[in-house]
Q: What sequence folds into this?
């Protein structure tokens, strides 16, 4: 029978290092894609992912084996901010708000539990919003892959490629490796098909002369990542805010899954309160330094499920390695030299996966669309998010996922009030009963 390594168990260094590299590899592909899409230096993200993970581990009293990586939920609103303000520094104020939101939610959850989340954003809305994140970004992937004109993109990520056979070849090759690798690879390779696809796509692009190696040659071996100061703007904060609730629900779900894998009640010990607090502090620091928002990573949960090694010391090792790699200038330069077609090919898969995760949420939460209010909530949220509808509130323009989330939240609250007043033509239900233990999660 395979050995199980406990959450607080220490392993010899000779065993810890390769296991830590394994976790780093699992999250590496996804966590560097986010800054590349947003035009942020991946080195600063690796640095803050590592520091953030160590902070999280300390705040949770070494009780939760979780790695914090770059969140995909903020890509769409951040691209909107970049298109509006011309840079990511304005979005950083939204990232800081996200961290503060998690810190506040830590105390709210400790005091009131989590039932209110289903009132504000029930699964019918949550699933639609998550799906919209992927659907809204799909045109960006198509543009980078040379399969659609630049006019269809949500925001300008790289220079558009138009009808270039080389571009399309590299993009489709990268996509094919990711697609077939996801269903064919076994063992640890099954956990990192995205990273393998990016590497293979990069090698093909290099062979076709599409990689600019001068940036790698000119880069220093040792280089401290450059920090970017935030520009505080309420417009950016309003655009970012709706994604915060989505990530909050994702955080709770990841903690529940991790608890099931490790056979521990992590919601109680060390508690959801500490988990949110640690993640929040990490994100405040990331916002001030110019990094992307962090979130717990499903890839690392998958590694633990396969290896049955749950040690936080292994996770801490991965964080330390990430910090070290962030200071190797040539590695950062190599990551930044990944051609647009490679990014386009792999994000065609990733954005689709994000959209499907939203649909999956409907299934897992057993959303009953034969009930009118669920059908209406999902329908309105979807249409507002993908139709291109927008609204301007002063200097703030809301559209896409941000607009859809706000509409969904407002409708959900109205439906809840109507249900309590007995005005609705059906009984209004939420997942948590009044006496549910889930409502008392600390």
A:
């Amino acid at each position: 029978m395979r050995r199980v390594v406990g959450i607080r168990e220490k392993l010899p260094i000779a065993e810890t290092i390769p296991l830590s590299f394994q976790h780093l590899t699992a999250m590496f592909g996804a966590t560097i894609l986010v800054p590349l899409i947003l035009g942020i230096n991946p080195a600063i993200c690796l640095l803050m992912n590592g520091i953030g993970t160590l902070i999280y581990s300390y705040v949770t009293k070494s009780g939760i084996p979780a790695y914090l990586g770059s969140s995909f939920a903020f890509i769409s609103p951040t691209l909107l901010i970049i298109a509006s303000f011309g840079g990511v520094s304005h979005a950083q104020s939204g990232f800081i708000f996200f961290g503060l939101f998690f810190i506040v939610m830590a105390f709210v959850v400790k005091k009131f539990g989590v039932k209110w989340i289903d009132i504000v954003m029930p699964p019918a809305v949550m699933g639609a919003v998550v799906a919209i994140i992927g659907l809204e970004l799909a045109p960006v992937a198509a543009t980078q892959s040379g399969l659609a004109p630049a006019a269809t993109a949500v925001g300008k990520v790289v220079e558009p490629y138009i009808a270039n056979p080389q571009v399309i070849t590299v993009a489709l090759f990268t996509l094919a490796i990711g697609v077939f690798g996801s269903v064919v690879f076994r063992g640890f390779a099954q956990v990192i098909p995205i990273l393998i696809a990016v590497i293979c796509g990069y090698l093909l692009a290099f062979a076709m002369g599409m990689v600019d190696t001068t940036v790698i040659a000119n880069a220093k071996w040792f280089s401290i990542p450059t920090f970017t100061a935030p520009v505080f703007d309420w417009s950016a904060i309003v655009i970012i805010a709706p994604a915060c609730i989505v990530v909050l629900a994702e955080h709770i779900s990841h903690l529940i899954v991790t608890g099931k894998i490790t056979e521990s009640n992590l919601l109680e010990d060390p508690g959801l309160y500490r988990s949110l607090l640690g993640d929040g502090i990490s994100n405040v620091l990331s916002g001030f330094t110019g990094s992307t928002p962090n979130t717990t990573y499903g890839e690392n949960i998958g590694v633990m499920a396969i290896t049955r090694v749950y040690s936080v010391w292994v996770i801490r090792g991965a964080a330390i390695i990430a910090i070290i790699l962030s200071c190797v200038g040539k590695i950062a330069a190599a990551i930044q030299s990944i051609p647009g077609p490679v990014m386009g090919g792999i994000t065609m898969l990733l954005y689709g996966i994000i959209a499907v995760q939203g649909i999956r949420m409907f299934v897992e939460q057993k959303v009953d669309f034969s009930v009118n209010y669920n059908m209406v909530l999902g329908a309105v949220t979807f249409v507002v998010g993908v139709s291109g509808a927008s609204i301007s509130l002063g200097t703030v323009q809301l559209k896409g996922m941000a607009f859809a989330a706000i509409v969904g939240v407002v409708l959900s609250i109205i439906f809840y009030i109507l249900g309590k007043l007995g005005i609705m033509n059906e009984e209004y239900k939420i997942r948590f009963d009044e006496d549910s233990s889930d409502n008392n999660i600390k």
